[in-house]
C-alpha cells in the first residue's frame, strides 16, 4: 500500500453528508431493465438523506469511487409491500388537460389537506383507476451500481437535503 493512499481512499468514501454520483441499472426479478442511468449522466444524491431507496443507500455506505455493487433490495427496504387495492375515481374529478395514462404519478390531498402520492393504473371513458402503492412496491429490486464520484456536500445542499445542479464547483 502506498503512503497516503488510505487518506485518499477515505476522501472517496460514501458516507452521510456527501454527494454521491452513481451509474446504475435496475432490473426486476425477471431481468427486465426498469431504470438505468447513462455512464455520462450518473444519478447524484445526498447520502444519508433518503434521496434514494433505503436499502440501496445502506448498501452503498462505505464504498469508494470505482467500487462496483451487485445487490438485491427486498420490498421492505425498497418501495414497501403492497397495501390496499387500486380505487376508481370519476374521470370528471380530473382537470380536462390532465395527462391521464397508466404509469403517471401525481400528488393528491387528503380531506385534512395532507399530500399523498397516487399512480394511475388504468383509464377508461368513465373512471381513472389510481393506486397509492408505488409501481415497484412488492418487488425485489436488482441493482448493478458503480460509484462514479463522491464529494462533500455544500452547506446549502446539507440545509436543503439534496444535491444542487448547475454549481460548477460542485460537479463531480
Identify low-pLDDT runs.
167-172
CATH class of the largest domain: Alpha Beta
Q: Compute the gyration radius: what is it? A: 20 Å
Query: Count of helical segments?
Result: 3
Counting structural domains, the number is 2
CATH architecture of the largest domain: Roll
Structural class comes to mainly beta
| N- to C-terminal distance | 26 Å
Overall pLDDT level: 90
Order of helices and strands: HEEEHEEEEEEH
Helix content: 10-25%
Largest sheet: 5 strands, antiparallel
What share of the residues does DSSP label as strand, in percent? 25-35%
Number of strands: 9
CA-based shape: elongated
What fold name goes in the CATH topology slot of the largest domain? Chitinase A, domain 3
Amino acid at each position: 500500500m502506498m503512503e497516503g493512499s488510505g487518506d485518499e481512499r477515505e476522501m472517496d468514501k460514501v458516507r452521510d453528508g456527501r454527494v454521491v454520483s452513481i451509474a446504475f441499472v435496475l432490473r426486476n426479478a425477471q431481468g427486465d431493465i426498469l431504470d438505468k442511468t447513462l455512464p455520462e449522466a450518473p444519478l447524484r444524491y445526498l447520502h444519508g438523506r433518503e434521496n434514494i431507496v433505503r436499502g440501496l443507500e445502506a448498501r452503498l455506505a462505505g464504498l469508494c469511487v470505482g467500487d462496483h455493487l451487485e445487490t438485491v433490495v427486498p420490498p421492505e427496504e425498497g418501495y414497501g409491500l403492497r397495501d390496499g387495492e387500486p380505487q376508481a375515481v370519476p374521470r370528471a374529478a380530473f382537470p380536462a388537460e390532465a395527462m391521464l395514462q397508466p404509469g403517471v404519478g401525481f400528488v393528491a390531498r387528503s380531506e385534512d389537506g395532507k399530500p399523498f402520492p397516487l399512480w394511475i393504473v388504468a383509464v377508461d371513458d368513465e373512471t381513472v383507476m389510481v393506486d397509492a402503492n408505488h409501481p415497484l412496491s412488492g418487488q425485489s429490486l436488482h441493482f448493478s451500481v458503480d460509484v462514479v464520484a463522491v464529494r462533500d456536500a455544500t452547506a446549502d445542499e446539507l440545509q436543503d437535503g439534496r444535491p444542487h445542479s448547475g454549481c460548477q464547483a460542485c460537479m463531480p
